[in-house]
Write a structure and sequence with these properties.
Elements (H helix, E strand, L loop, with lengths): L1 E6 L28 H8 L7 E5 L3 H10 L6 E5 L5 H13 L6 E6 L3 E2 L2 H14 L5 E6 L10 E4 L7 E7 L4 H10 L2 E11 H11 L1 H12 L2 E3 L2 E3 L2 H4 L7 H6 L5 E6 L3 E2 L4 H7 L8 E9 L5 E12 L4 E5 L4 E5 L6 H10 L10 E4 L2 E8 L3 E8 L7 E3 L3 E9 L2 E5 L2 E5 L4 E4 L5 E4 L6 E9 L8 E4 L6
Parallel strand pairs: 1-2, 1-4, 2-3, 3-11, 6-12, 14-15, 15-16
Antiparallel strand pairs: 4-9, 5-13, 6-9, 7-8, 7-9, 8-12, 10-11, 16-17, 18-19, 19-20, 20-27, 21-28, 22-25, 22-27, 23-24, 23-26
Helix pairs in contact: 3-6, 3-7, 6-7
């Protein structure tokens, strides 16, 4: 069985932590040392090496997180455009068939939390056997309460390890959810699947022939880029966008379900995170430096500064370097509306954090004005920035710790702690960390335009020219 990890979500309901260019699956949300993506990959290390499908913009962060977790994927497929889950799974199925014509896939979103890993593995075994005859198998999470935030599956049988699915049901209102819970034949739709790669592609061709053909052509015209497989943008862009549920599962006849009772959550918002997290005696979830006083049933997330709550109840407080969310816990589903408002206002806080990750390290924009910007830059050991130039800004670099090799024009020089260099406007330059420890420096930019798009790359180790 080959795990397929889908890492294309945006997670807007978990703003301000989750953002378009650094979504929720790349964050540590459940209190452990691993991100949601790493946890997903580590759950299935007993299976074959995973196939990962991700957004092109996230490729280096996904690859680095997997590497640091000790997971080596068999392939990382880069989607040139977001087209929902049905095409993403088709690309993974085509990749799996390159090495195994009888491949069975376990499709797992990268942003879910599962408390009981052993229960999941047992359910995957059952699902694998059920999929051997060409069935499309999904997992129905045993509901613990009348949840209105999930879709449901209705099963034909009320007992058994494998059951036939009668229908897929949209998110219900609360009275309907109570009826589903009482009936005993409705389960939360997990968004996880097991099937043979060929069976899925055959079903997609039957129900969505245009999508199936576009995915095949885009995959056949893919190219290799470093450790990634870059799907052809020209061939993939016309692909229809649809979820696997709508495109295939709701139309197929041979759909079966394995009940799953493993402490599952899609971590779809701050209330969901509060529900699955460890709480103190007053029901508070404190992540980071938090001091709750006379406070009850709150979730506070702050890794940058001390947050003290006094007399707070049923509240979510999330602090980041450039944005603060304060909301009632019963209103956090509306966070996505706030994100849309931020976008409409032309602000950038829905896209990036103040600290931005790059394949060579990261930078934190610590101060800025009309004609200047100050960044703290960290370069990984052995990494280099691209050979580049700027039309509108000059830069001063001051090394804080570590050693730097700086190329300006045709000249190279080495800088150590407390040494600095000036790069004039229009001059080609490059920064390299030759050491075994991170290089940290302060960059002061000055000029008429300081946008990140004022970069002309001539050479780049990460293929970004």
């Amino acid at each position: 069985m080959i795990p397929v990890i889908l890492s294309g979500g945006a997670g807007t309901r978990l703003w301000p932590l989750s953002r378009k260019h650094y979504p929720k699956q790349l964050h540590r949300l459940t209190g452990g040392e691993h991100t949601l993506l790493q946890e997903t990959a580590l759950r299935v290390t007993d299976l074959q090496a995973p196939i990962v499908v991700c957004n092109e913009d996230h490729r280096f962060m996904v690859a680095e997180q997997l590497r640091s977790a000790g997971v080596t994927p068999s392939a990382i497929l880069l989607e040139p455009a977001a087209r929902n889950t049905a095409p993403a799974i088709a690309l993974a199925a085509l990749q799996a068939l390159q090495t195994d014509p009888e491949a069975t896939l376990a499709v797992l979103p990268a942003d879910h939390a599962i408390a009981d890993h052993q229960a999941l593995l047992q359910a995957l075994d059952v699902a694998g056997e059920a999929a051997a005859d060409g069935s499309l198998v999904t997992f129905g999470v045993v509901p613990t309460h009348p949840e209105t935030g999930y879709g449901y599956l209705q099963s034909q049988e009320k007992s058994g390890n494998v059951r036939h699915v009668i229908r897929f049901v949209e998110k219900p209102d609360h009275p309907t959810a109570e009826q589903y819970l009482a009936a005993g034949d409705h389960f939360w739709n997990s968004g996880m699947f097991v099937f043979r790669a060929r069976a899925y592609l055959d079903a997609l061709m039957r129900f969505q022939p245009t999508m199936a053909e576009v995915c095949r052509e885009a995959f056949e015209n893919a190219s290799t880029d470093l450790d990634f497989i870059r799907i052809s943008k020209a061939h993939f862009s016309p692909c229809p966008s649809d979820s696997i549920d709508y495109a295939v599962m709701e139309q197929a006849e041979q759909v079966r379900m394995v009940p799953l009772d493993a402490g599952w959550s899609d971590v779809g918002g701050w209330h969901s995170l509060w529900e699955i997290s460890d709480k103190d005696e007053n029901g508070n979830v404190s992540i980071g430096d938090v001091l709750p006083m006379d406070s009850h049933n709150n979730l506070v997330h702050s890794r940058e500064k001390l947050v003290v709550t006094l007399g707070m109840e049923d509240t979510v407080i999330v602090d980041t370097k450039d944005a603060l969310l304060v909301a009632r816990r019963d209103r956090v589903q509306q966070v996505k509306d706030a994100v849309e408002k931020i976008r409409e206002l032309g602000r950038k806080e829905h896209l990036n954090h103040r600290e931005v990750h790059r394949p060579w390290g990261s930078y934190d924009s610590i101060d800025n004005g009309e004609r200047y910007q100050v960044k703290c830059i960290t370069v990984k050991p052995g990494a280099s920035l691209s050979l580049q130039m700027h039309h509108h800004r000059a830069e001063h670099w001051v090394v804080v710790s570590g050693t730097a090799i700086v190329q300006i024009g045709e000249r190279e020089q080495m800088l150590t702690e407390n040494e600095s260099v000036y790069i004039p406007i229009g001059e080609k330059h490059r920064l390299t960390n030759p050491g075994k420890l991170p290089l940290e420096l302060i960059e002061v930019q000055s000029g008429s335009y300081l946008g990140e798009d004022d970069i002309v790359r001539f050479e780049d180790n990460f293929g970004r020219c």
